[in-house]
Automatic annotation (TrEMBL):
Cofactors, names only: Mg(2+)
Keyword set includes Mitochondrion: no
PANTHER family linked: TREHALOSE 6-PHOSPHATE PHOSPHATASE
Family under the similarity heading: Belongs to the trehalose phosphatase family.
Cited function: Removes the phosphate from trehalose 6-phosphate to produce free trehalose.
This enzyme's EC code(s): 3.1.3.12
Protein name as catalogued: Trehalose 6-phosphate phosphatase
Known catalytic reactions: alpha,alpha-trehalose 6-phosphate + H2O = alpha,alpha-trehalose + phosphate
GO MF annotations, alphabetized: metal ion binding; trehalose-phosphatase activity
Gene3D superfamilies attached to this UniProt entry: HAD superfamily/HAD-like (3.40.50.1000), Trehalose-6-phosphate phosphatase related protein, domain 2 (3.30.70.1020)
Keywords: Hydrolase, Magnesium, Metal-binding
Top-level taxon of origin: Bacteria
Pathway annotation from the record: Glycan biosynthesis; trehalose biosynthesis
């Protein structure tokens, strides 16, 4: 067992386990509205949530969407930080800031901006808008063609561009998953941390794990779409759920 994982298992009450949603807990699918957690995910999270100090999902989704698509409402002690940390769901209560005013212009201009490429999807998430190219004939070519215009629209409206797997998101600036995770670690007085992710937006959280000064484990949920260096690389959401189960087993095995 790697040293930082050993720290989590030896002192689970001081551990923060952080998880991304899409691509980490939920398999990637063509339609964002059809994404659902891996079938074994809710049970694995409920078990781990009862064993570690803190369990947190940090996602680009609205927090309520992750709770719904992840069947997460019953996971003990779970916190869900949505919109890269702008929103917080905990114990059934959601706190969310007012929408960024730039989103009004984005909603008005995006349909024209993407009209030339068949199959581009616009996902309006309330506090952010995502442009998806996965269902176009050439997802990477469409992504590349839209990156410049989307960046110009972001500059015009005071929003930030968050690139991901065949997605360009226009979202409020000022936070990211690294900021969200770092703040959460301080809030919980964490003594160790694990974060699992699969996409570019998760790299800031990996960096937070590496620089927070605690024993930390980065877990990459691997796929054919992206390769990222991490302490542990597993095979997609099925591998993440299996890893979470093995951590629960190791903690439970040390209990008197
Ligand atoms: O932070 P996450 O929980 O990983 O959310 C990041 C984005 O995930 C979703 O898009 C991705 O998953 C879709 C469903 O599998 C897939 O169709 C798409 O190609 C992926 O980029 C979500 O739709 C976005 O809003 C999130 O920002």
């Amino acid at each position: 067992m790697i040293e930082a994982l050993e720290a989590i298992v030896a002192d689970p009450a001081g551990a923060v386990v952080g998880l991304d949603f899409d691509g980490t807990l939920a398999p990637i699918v063509p339609d964002p509205e059809s994404a659902r957690i891996h079938p074994a995910g809710p049970e694995a999270l409920a078990r781990l949530g009862g064993l570690v100090g803190s369990l947190v999902v940090i996602t680009g989704r609205p927090a309520a969407t992750a709770v719904e698509y992840g069947s997460l409402a019953g996971v003990p002690g779970l916190v869900v930080l949505g919109h890269y940390g702008l929103e917080r769901w905990e114990g059934g209560e959601l706190s969310s800031p007012p929408p960024h005013p730039g989103l009004i212009t984005v909603r008005a201009e995006l349909p024209t901006l993407v009209a030339g490429i068949a199959g581009v999807g616009i996902e309006d998430k309330g506090r952010a808008v995502a442009v998806h190219t996965r269902r176009t004939a050439s997802p990477q070519a469409a992504f590349d063609a839209l990156a410049g215009p989307v960046a110009e629209l972001a500059a015009e409206t005071g929003l930030a561009v968050e690139p991901g797997k065949f997605v360009l998101e226009l979202r409020p600036p000022g936070t990211d998953k690294g900021v969200a995770l770092g703040d959460f670690l301080r809030e919980r007085s964490a003594r160790s941390v694990l974060f699992a992710g699969d996409d570019l937006g998760d790299l800031a959280a990996f960096e937070a794990v590496r620089t927070c000064g605690l024993p930390g484990v980065t877990v990459f949920s691997g796929s054919a779409e992206l390769s990222v260096e991490a302490d542990i690389v597993v095979d997609g959401p099925a591998g993440v759920v299996e890893l979470l189960g093995s951590i629960s087993d190791a903690i439970a095995a040390r209990r008197p």
